Amino acid sequence: MNLEPQKTSEIRAAGGVARVFASLAILVLAALTILVVLDVIPRSAFAEAAGKTAMVAGICALAIAAIGFLSRR
After folding, report:
1. Are residues 36 and 43 in contact, defined by beta-carbon separation less than 8 angstroms?
2. Is position 3 within any domain?
């Protein structure tokens, strides 16, 4: 167990990677929404997957929050 503080460059790099993934997720969701609005993807097909996707996203958000809470001490 390393009790020394992390370097700020390591913290910034991890934050940068998280921002990139979050940005990509937002862009993908926006693209899917645009395709549904333009009726390229039928609403019925999207509705089936939307509920499950929301539940998975909620679980991931809670897991990330819990890990963040536990790692701060």
Report:
1. yes
2. no
